[in-house]
Amino acid sequence: METSGRLAGRVALVFGAGSVGEGWGNGKAAAAAYARQGARVVAVDRVAQAAQATQDAIRAEGHDALGLQADVTHLADVQRVVDQALSQYGQIDILHNNVGITSQGGPVETGEDIWDRVMTVNVKSMFLTCKAVLPHMEARGRGAIVNIGALGGVRWTGYAYCAYAASKGAVNSFTQSIALQYAAKGIRANCILPGVMDTPHIYQQISGFYQNTQEMVDARNKLSPTGRMGDGWDVAHAAVFLASDEARYINGVELFVDGGMHARCN
Question: How much is the pTM?
Fold first, then answer.
């Protein structure tokens, strides 16, 4: 596959670059999309085999990739893969934070341990990756951070998962804080808010709301004004744009990738 070169000469560090099942999740698709646009990609996932699979998929297309295992809730792990990325490629131009989990239940049903786990995985992970990467971006005077939030962080989407919604709301504020603090240093930070997406993730973490898989797919398709769910590539293409120079004056935004679902009031 030809490379257009929009991200030629750049290095993209993608956390949550694996897929939890067959197909293309948001992180795996983003890693591949960065590579197809000329970036060298460091694909990181908690599951080593998932990181390896993304690395292999990118290399099979003739692009440069390195798959690494890390738990983003631990600073030592994050720092290790940042050091490995710098050792391998000498720079980090794009930081993509895709790691996230959901949990069912409102405040009464959600256990304190579940609440803490969701906040740690969904929010603290981004704090840790930014903590490790920002000094290198600042030293070079450039960088683009793409954080994956969710429509559920700003709108009720029909699912009772208060911890997830709160965590994704925090991601928005965290992203804006970085965007403004580092804007004059050549670093941009933006957030993508996917709506209902058809990715491997939903078949493991959302299916519990429904009687069977087909009921879930039908219901989620109906939630979108377009009549269908989006997929990982819709998120990936948005990420490539935000990471590219075409978005050089776009900073601190929440970009909805949801078929217009955020604009609907019913």
Answer: 0.92
